[in-house]
């Protein structure tokens, strides 16, 4: 396919390659997406499970749901798409930004990963006590205490993910905006509807980058990128990856 060759050439020649990933990148690993037919937001209401208000209302229900997701993700492995992104991340000038909280990029060895929405394997203090604001990692499945407690103040601990209605860490938004200044901006497996992540491809385009999308289906960004390739990331990415010339 000519498009594949065009994008392979652009990526291999890029001095600054920026990659944005979404739930679609982990779909082939068995991690549910959010907005597909069988997506999480088709079965559950985000306002009941992924907002600070929902947590304040009923922390046990929210933790039950995150515990279920942690159990599911713990059984998943990075797929070929994660491994290709990890290989690209070793290239100088490559930045990888993800909206995913599953850390499969981390397990695939991705260098210098920017996790915009946090990690499902990290917790922080819901009461925001001084010591508990900084998140801590806890990969135990199941978590021994439900709901888990802050080890510093004994208050409620929460998943260290960004919920609807919450701001991202200022440093992350800035770093993501800087990464939009690139030669090639590749967006993979995201429906491109959640901001600020969905704004990055527009910013990259505004700054003169060649923009491309890999997705199973059309998205809100498909009509504005230079090149949109439809297909599974786990099939398409290996075709785009050309092993570096020694
Ligand atoms: N390969 C490529 N794309 C895929 C694949 C696949 N194998 N499977 C699904 N997709 C695409 C879908 O077509 C869809 O466009 O991945 C996209 C997933 O979109 P969403 O479920 O909306 O997930 P995402 O865009 O990552 O959501 C953004 O919303 O719910 C919040 O915080 C949550 O980070 C999340 C954010």
Q: If you had to describe this structure to a student in words, what would you say it looks like?
A:
This protein has 11 helices and 9 strands. By secondary structure, it is α/β, with parallel strands linked by helices. The strands form 2 sheets. Strands 3-2-1-7-8-9 form a 6-stranded parallel β-sheet, sandwiched between helices. The protein has a 3-stranded antiparallel β-sheet with strand order 5-4-6, covered by helices on one side. Helix 7 runs parallel beside helix 11. The relative contact order is 0.19. The model has no long low-confidence stretch (mean pLDDT 95). Adenosine-5-diphosphoribose (APR) binds next to helix 2 and helix 11.
Number of helices: 11
Large-scale geometry: globular
Helix content: 25-40%
The total of beta strands comes to: 9
Rg on CA atoms, Å? 18 Å
How far is the first residue's CA from the last residue's CA? 26 Å
Structural class: alpha/beta
Low-confidence sequence ranges: none
Question: The biggest beta sheet, please?
Answer: 6 strands, parallel
Mean pLDDT: 95
What order do the helices and strands follow? HEHHHHHHEHEEEEHEHEEH
> In what order do the strands lie side by side in the largest sheet?
3-2-1-7-8-9
What small-molecule ligands were found? adenosine-5-diphosphoribose
Strand content: 15-25%
